[in-house]
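Hi W.,

Here's what went into the run:
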Amino acid sequence: MSPRGIEGDVRPLAWGERLDILDALTMVLEGVYVHLPLKRALYGFDVIRGLANLRQQVPSLTDLEFHRELTSLVNRLRDAHTQYRGPWMVPDAVASLPFLVEAFGPADRPTYVVSKIDRRAIKDRRFVPGVTIEYWNGVPFRRAVEVHAERETGGRPDARRARALESLTFRALEFAPPPDEEWVVVGYRDREGRARQVRLAWETIEPGRAPVASNKVGTRIRRGIDHAAEAVRRAKKFRFNRGLWRAERAAPFADFLTARTVTTRSGRFGYLRIWSFDVDDDQAFVEAAIRLLRRLPDRGLIIDLRSNPGGFIWAAERLLQLFTPHPVMPTRFALRATPVTSALARAALTRAELAPWAASLFAAERTGEPYSSHLPITPPERCNDVGQQYGGPVLVIVDANTYSSGDLFAAGIVDNRIGPVLCIGEATGAGGANVWRSDDLRAALSSAKVPLPQLPEGVSFTVAVRRAVRTNDAEGSLIEDAGVAGQPYEMTRRDIFGSNRDLIERCGEILAAQPRTRLEVGHRGRARTLSVRTGGIEELDLYVNGRTGGPTIAVNRGGTLRVPLPPHAREVELVGFAGGVVRQRRRLTIARRP
Amino acid sequence: MALVIAGRIVPLDRDDPTAVFKGRVFIDDSGTIERVTASGAAEPSGFAGAPVLDVGDALVLPGLIDLHNHIGYNALPLWVEPRQKVPFAHHDSWTRAPTYQASISWPAQTLVAAAPEALLAYVQLRALVGGTTGIQGWPSANRKSVQALRNVDDETVGGTNRNLIRTSALTLKPLDLGEMAQAQRQGAGFIYHCAEGQVGSLVAREFVDAANAGCLGKTFIGIHCNAIAEADWQRWEKSRAGTVVWSPFSNLWLYGTTTDIAAARARGVTVCLGSDWGPSGAKNVLAEIKVARLASESLGLGLTDQALVEMVTAGPGDALARCWNKGVGRLAPGAFGDVTVFRPDGGGSVWRRVVEAGEDDVMLVVYEGIPRYGDAKLMTAAAGLARSSPITIRGRRRRFAIGDPDNPAGAWSWKEITGRLKAVRKDPAAALREARRRREAFAGPMDAADAPLELVLDMPFGEAPMAGDIMDHADEIVIPPLPSLLHDAAFFKSVKGRGFHGGLLDRLADFYR
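Here's what came out:
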């Protein structure tokens, strides 16, 4: 079906309903939206004034004009967390052109190529992966990307361009009006170097959501995600890799995690692709990751977070502990201190969730402090309850479409000194917040006796409620609009058409240069000894039931040894040192004797 | 104090709308109907010492509701513009007429400014005489005033929320309509003067705007809507049908046509009646029922007498109950204790009896459990509930209970009320000056109980040249003689050959012979 067909099914809103939408958005943006002062300062744009102005225009706009104006206003916040969903909303539906464009080369002189096509929808046999895109509806393609980027979220220009490149061919209809045009005329240069053009029509596809995707209320209010990007991610998979899309039906977390071994000139490494954190069950997600890690070589691990739109914050932050012997400090979050957020902290439905922030919100009523205290959403003890599971060096790949919980994961990697970040573009997507849905907000506010105007059927919005700041070395730094930077990398043609060949080689070089240690701890049944294999470890400390389990054990490099356990041993932790620094840490639970 | 009324009960029961039986209505001391029982049924507790008004075979109905009025203008007689030879096009046409200001705006403004309490007493008594217990279209005021009738626009239903009903007699801008629709979505009612004029005139746009704003729902009460063509009624979804208020007398007087009642009813819209205002309306809603029957016969609408009675009882009651969450317009437990009693005529259809009843036939009017007007014998029997004053209506001794604004425990007399109004009429300029002096001399807050009462009329002031304040024209103001409270010979004489009704309204006199 053409995306434009959706408009015909939508009941026009009455003016009063439009005013309800504007009043609800005004109330939430003024009273809850955590980035309001930041966005005003950064972009010189006052969304509240914009909404007031749109209010005056309500009777003179057509329905679609109203929705486009409102979408445009909200998008000027450059915040993918804070999005308006009009009544054309088709959950999980995506308007799509039957091909994908990707860029490679330096950022100031990118080359745009068709990387994937859906042959079922393209008759032009010369339009194949590898052709270079030069024009878009007669506009030079680079300019077309720039123009489209103006409508996109994203704090930095490179982030907006990255999103624009994606949304030129894929648009989540849950969050944006249907494309203006019914088809596009693409000017391209074929493999023989001849200039050609092809006309391609928009289609609507509905990839659905993965079986274990996030849905529960307990998860929904602890998410950091770009919902639109998540829908597009699934649509791409549905359109271009239907086999992978089907696989998730059989393997519960196949839509979120995949792993393989990659061979480079620097050696063989593990490669963990984290597609998304949008799950409900963080424990099952962590366990699924552990199962995958056990199959990978311990020489080093590449974690690929490109285009990860985020998801459940707990899932992202709890995963960090698997890669470090040190305690993980999660990102901290704060709310704006306003009468509305104070009401939320008192509300029956959100009192428990916001309990840690309540005291500072209430104090701010007297002091005028603009923000609450910054406190973690993921409890620190949950970020350290499993411990290190992968002992090799770790590297994370990100791009400007790595967003929200993806940003948090990347920040956690850097701030907890777990490993380097390799970045395609200037930094991650810079979505530093916890996002709530309007229906959850409405229910919470209703229980606080602060009623939000009733939104018409099919209308909703999402809003950033708690902002994230980094920890440790970057203590207090905002993620929103800044992102997490890393070592720069420019994509190559070989990356796009050769399974990221050059990128993986570069990762291999970096990993091979990292110091490497190894600690394998074995234990059978109710045996009273641990079987330990080490590499590069000089000393071991044993802890039993939380206390020191004896003197430090000296280890020959690359040695194998047995470590006796006292009879009462239940929780055992083995810590490996090299050069006086903690390099490895493993925990085991010993079964009791019958 | 509680009250019991015994007689032939016509409760307009939702489940049995044709029911008529000998019985009693028990109204508790908060003014709410406790129970409605057949004769011989057990009495609810708490009524042992309550006065019992036994009206014999008289008909005990819910109090009549006039769902459209501008009561601030009800001391004025019927008006015509001498130079107007064809019916007016719409509501903005006659406000531009050459004599509108001098005949309507200036006298009305002078009366509300110079004698606001007396004016309110007079117009309330005019409604009571016609069996009315609730009326729409009060002037807005700076403070509470003596009230003997239910103020539909400002009913708080015992609470403090004065926004249960929103009202606009003037055309609203689109954005304002949108805000009204928002209030409706929160449960408020919206009474809107909408599309008053001839079909095809530009005011039909008001209805289209109301539709686009989302106002056309169950709590929308559209007044007049006579400019709406049959096709435009389709904009009102049947599942969200609300209410239209029909004022056939006023419509025919000004425009020569009236609301397309058949089209409204076909959309499921509830039709109610309103007597509009003195300059172009009947004197009370009891007369408006008769005009509605004449219009029905003339236009072939096929309205039964029961349907006509429901247009001033259960129909408006249900429309208001949607906003108030409290029953009115039906005699049912939990509803407001508003009752009108009609004199028996020896049998026959009770509906016909009510439709054809004149002011002579109104025996008793009870507002919120307190008798406000009626036969002297009944009013005296309930003297413990309210002090009343005598008045003679067509030679019959009656009493009415409207509080004296200077002495809340006392009853205001007819002589004093009319005396104040006549004094204003005698020297409008002096009365205006005195009112201004009184207002400017007051030192307290203007919403205090002892502040001078300031009323603001709800109709346009007209567009003829009028510089500045009314005081600038004080010496030109002529207030017509105070009309009688009744549909009498003088009234019918003023109907015949005037207005644009084509003679249809001449037949109203037949009901009063």
